Amino acid sequence: MATGIRVHTGTDLLAHTDALRSVYADAFCVPPWNEDEERAAEFAGLLPANVERPGFTAATAVRDGNVIGFATAWTTPALFPTDRCYPQAAAGLGPERTADWLCGALEVDELAVRPAARGTGLAGDLLHAVTAGAPDGRAWLLTSVRNARAVAFYRRQDWTQVTHPSPDGRGIAVFLGPRHPARSLAPLPL
Predict the structure, then answer these.
(1) 0.85 exceeded by the pTM?
(2) Among 108, 122, 163, 185, which one is least packed by beta carbons within 10 Å?
(3) Cα–Cα distance between 67 and 70 in angstroms, integer?
(4) Do the bridges between strand 57-63 and strand 3-8 make them parallel or antiparallel, or are there none, so unpaired?
(5) Chain-centre distance for alpha carbon 178
(6) At a CB cut-off of 8 Å and minimum separation 6, what does 25 contact?
(7) Which 3-state string (H, E, C) describes 139-151?
(8) How confident is the model at residue 190 (pLDDT cuts 50, 70, 90)?
C-alpha cells in the first residue's frame, strides 16, 4: 500500500483531470472551505490553461492506482495579477515587497489530499515535491486564515507567514517557503 509521488511539468497531468477534480471536491467541498461541485468542475476546466503557464509544476500522489492527493504551482508573473485573492496579498505586503518577494517566484496554487490520507505526511510530501525546483528557493502561497488547520500545517512545514490579516479572522495570509531568501525580512508574528 505504498504511495508514489510523481512530478509533472506539462500536459501529461491532463490525463488525471477527472481524478484531480474528485480529490479537489473531497478536499474543498467540506468545511471550512464549503466549495461546491461547480467549483471543483471549474478547477478541472482551468487545468488545460494552467499547465501552459510558465514554470508550471504539479505533483500527484497515487496509491493502489488511485490519485489521493495533488499540488499545483507556477511562476508568478512580473506584473502581479489583480484577480482572485491577489489584491489582498499585495495590500498586505505593499508594492515593493510584492514585486521583490512574489513576482518571479513559484506560487503554490492548490494542495489537496483526500480525507483518508490526512495526517499521514502526504500533504507535506506533495508540498515539498512541487516546490523543490523553486528558483533560488523562492516559493510562496496564500491561504485563508479561516482555516486554522491549514495555517498550522504550513507553519509546521517551516513556511513563514508574512502577512497578518485583520483580527476579525478574515482574509488571507501569505506564506514564504522554507528556502525563500526574504523569510528573514518578514515581520515577527503577533
Answers:
(1) yes
(2) 185
(3) 8
(4) antiparallel
(5) 14
(6) 37, 40
(7) EEEEEECCCHHHH
(8) very low
